[in-house]
Specification:
344 residues; single chain; Aspartate Aminotransferase, domain 1; globular; binds pyridoxal-5'-phosphate; 13 strands; alpha/beta; two-stranded parallel ribbon; seven-stranded mixed β-sheet; Aspartate Aminotransferase, domain 2
């Protein structure tokens, strides 16, 4: 099998290739870590992360029993695959999307079914036949990675009603969907109770700037969560990350500010990229999937030579595109200067 290929990490390079946040995490996170007592390392962590679940439940308007905490949302995905997919059973995704959905299917011995997005100039639309794939799990990243495009809540609710199995909506980037500071208008969390087969994933890696802590949240019907609890590793989230997540959730104003800065920088980056004649589908995330043409790989390499990493895939459906994460002001300026030299 091929394993998942994580985005490159090159010391000294500016990472605009894995959609991390360009803004540092809340200072309250570092303070919470500094204040930890040594028992917190000597003893095992709370296996269910109950303190974090309580704060998250209040923050998102659900009960503690609707929540499972994962070692990144990738861990939540692993738990879902293990729980729901026997060898040979199907998982369906609209395609192209986040590559890990494929790799986990391979590990599980299950079959992955790709149903192509309907791609228009500005948008990627959900394929009509997605619900009819006989899949135990159907997964939609919303906003989608790598396109950054957003499917409306009403459409996903319809899909939840149509699929026979579980619908997983991976909302890793929904906080950037622009309606408010926590993606409420674009998120399915408020509709959880209406759909017992719905699972929603969130991560602290993007809008909370905690990719290094590895922390994700899974929201679902309490009965479903109770089953998933049996499947996860017992101590799947270390105490430091639980404390970091709790402090991050409590600092609402930092979260709002991080999102506002990211959206303002996204707009600036868009203006600069448009001046190069590049196009991309409308993004509801902290990255842009730019159509660059046959020179995409050459531009990727030239950027790397200047210390700037962006993402490119050597696959027919993405080969002419570069995915660029919104950086901070200085990173974006450097990127635009470099691109004007290389591609202008
Ligand atoms: C759609 C999507 N889901 C999940 C993840 C991984 O999130 P985490 O860092 O919480 O494992 C990513 C990371 O890029 C992603 O793009």
């Amino acid at each position: 099998m091929h394993g998942y290929t994580p985005g490159e990490q090159v010391v000294g390079c500016t990472k605009l290739n894995t959609n991390e946040s360009a803004v540092p995490p809340s200072p309250a996170v570092l303070a919470a870590l500094a204040a930890l007592e040594d028992d917190r390392l000597r003893l095992y962590p709370d296996p269910r992360a109950n303190a974090l679940r309580r704060v998250a439940a209040e923050r998102y308007g659900v009960t503690v029993d609707h929540l499972l905490v994962g070692n990144g949302s990738d861990d939540c995905l692993t738990v879902l695959y293990r729980a729901f997919l026997a060898p040979g059973e199907r998982v369906a995704v609209p395609w192209p999307t986040y590559g890990l959905y494929d790799d986990l299917a391979t590990l599980q011995g299950s079959e992955i079914v790709h149903v192509d997005y309907r791609i228009t100039a500005n948008d990627w639309l959900l394929p009509d036949s997605l619900a009819r794939q006989g899949a135990k799990l159907t997964i939609v990243a919303n906003p989608n990675n790598p396109s950054g495009t957003l499917v409306p809540v009403a459409e996903l609710r319809r899909l939840a009603d149509q699929v026979e199995g579980i619908l997983v909506v991976d909302e890793a980037y929904v906080d950037f969907a622009g309606r408010d500071d926590d993606g409420t208008g674009a998120s399915l969390i408020a509709h959880l109770d209406a759909h017992p087969n719905l699972v929603i994933l969130r991560t602290f890696s993007k809008s909370y700037s905690l990719a290094g802590a590895r922390l994700g949240l899974l929201f679902a019907h309490p009965e479903l969560v109770a089953h998933l609890m049996k499947v996860k590793d017992s101590y799947n989230v270390n105490h430091l990350s639980q404390a970091a997540g709790l402090a991050a959730l409590e600092d609402r104003s930092h979260h709002r500010q991080l999102i506002a800065v990211t959206l303002a920088e996204r707009a600036r980056l868009e203006t600069g990229l448009a001046a190069l004649g590049w196009t991309w589908p409308r993004s509801a995330a902290n990255f842009l999937l730019c159509e660059v043409g046959p020179r995409a790989k050459e531009i990727l390499d030239a950027l790397k030579a200047r210390g700037l990493l962006v993402r490119w895939w050597n696959r027919p459906d993405l080969v002419t595109k570069l995915r660029i994460t919104v950086g901070n002001r200085a990173d974006n300026d450097r990127l635009l200067v470099a691109l004007r030299e290389i591609a202008g």
